[in-house]
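so i finally got all the pieces together for this one. its two components total, 472 residues if u count the protein bits. some of the lines might not be protein, just check the labels. i wanna see the whole assembly predicted at once instead of chain by chain like last time, that was a mess tbh
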Amino acid sequence: DIVRELENGCTSSALLHGLKVLITAGPTREPIDPVRFLTNRSSGKMGYAVARAAAQMGAEVMLVSGHVALDCPVGVRRVITESAADMLYATCEHAKQADLFIATAAVADYTPVDVADRKIKKNAATLHLEMKRTTDILATIKQEYPHLFTVGFAAETHDLMTYARSKLERKNIDMIAANSVAGGKAFDQPTNALEVVWKNGHTSLPEMDKQQLAEALMQLVAAQYNQRKLAQHDND
Amino acid sequence: DIVRELENGCTSSALLHGLKVLITAGPTREPIDPVRFLTNRSSGKMGYAVARAAAQMGAEVMLVSGHVALDCPVGVRRVITESAADMLYATCEHAKQADLFIATAAVADYTPVDVADRKIKKNAATLHLEMKRTTDILATIKQEYPHLFTVGFAAETHDLMTYARSKLERKNIDMIAANSVAGGKAFDQPTNALEVVWKNGHTSLPEMDKQQLAEALMQLVAAQYNQRKLAQHDND
């Protein structure tokens, strides 16, 4: 059915047709010893919803995920990673072929300086854990591949829009989707709301089911991506 | 069918009939800020298998669980707890009515001294996390209820039997089930092996499915519990 195919071509279902979308999702685990680790409350639900939405819009999706209790969405390729360093490595490996990069993962900002190779015994009354900054995945990818269309996520408990706009400019990325996590909000919940910010605009996506929200977000992403492609084409 | 009931009474299916069994399971989460926390690799599978086995053997089971990706076993009552302090509180609440206490949870030994009420920003190159010892749940319960029949678990990467015997004596508990977690072994796996130690004996349960293992363990527990009851009766 040529007519139906043409019609489909005009709907959101093919907005990302033929594009390679790389997505990170979920938390990282920073080991302290073979048993204990530092992590965060990310369930991966938002990232997995974004991966599913991108695949439904015709993209070839690669998902670099932390440990989560979610199945891989249909039509999506997935690799499971452990620490921020592991996730960085896997992301770099797949960024070369990507057209869009969407960083939804809640990557640890700090990781222990030393990892004990045996379980730390609890003899001492106190324990001092020295931690160092992890390598910023978004910044690294943007430095290696400056032309890759990049969407960041920000989870903040306070001053959402200020942080979102500052992150967009500081990291020189194309779009930021920011959500409030005050009082545990957003984590492991079926719904979420997003403030989506780009260089010369922004829009509020109100609280809704994470899958619907992911579809709305991916339509905004596709629109901005296609506008940039057209602008580049005009400049050629 | 009186005959069948009598027969059942003689099999393992009713060994814990009428007894109240309190079980802790899974990891705890020690918050650093509203987003980040310290935890460990416990999946809760062994504890949930023990709860299921105890219920099948006729016990009234109360499960105090950390966050896990497991459904509550049929016939078991469950409460979900967050930190070591939360788990201690819930366990104390239910210990008063219990006949047996089986501590399978992987409780954090250390918790941050300060919990930030806002997400810690990643401005600094390093982060020092000061942690203090948590209150020992097993020791607290044993102190409050010295006559409660108590089974501890030990997950060690090295010197399994030495630690198990030392824990049994130091904490003055009735039985210890110890497993090796060297190289991530046992965590989130369907199988496990246990060294079961008590005052004047020990037995090795070889690697098998966690549910079978839990049933074998609970038969040993029931045997020791019933021996102690008989001994107390003789002394009366």
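The radius of gyration of chain A is 19 Å.
Helices of chain A lie at 2-10, 45-56, 84-95, 137-144, 160-170, 210-235.
anyway lmk what u think
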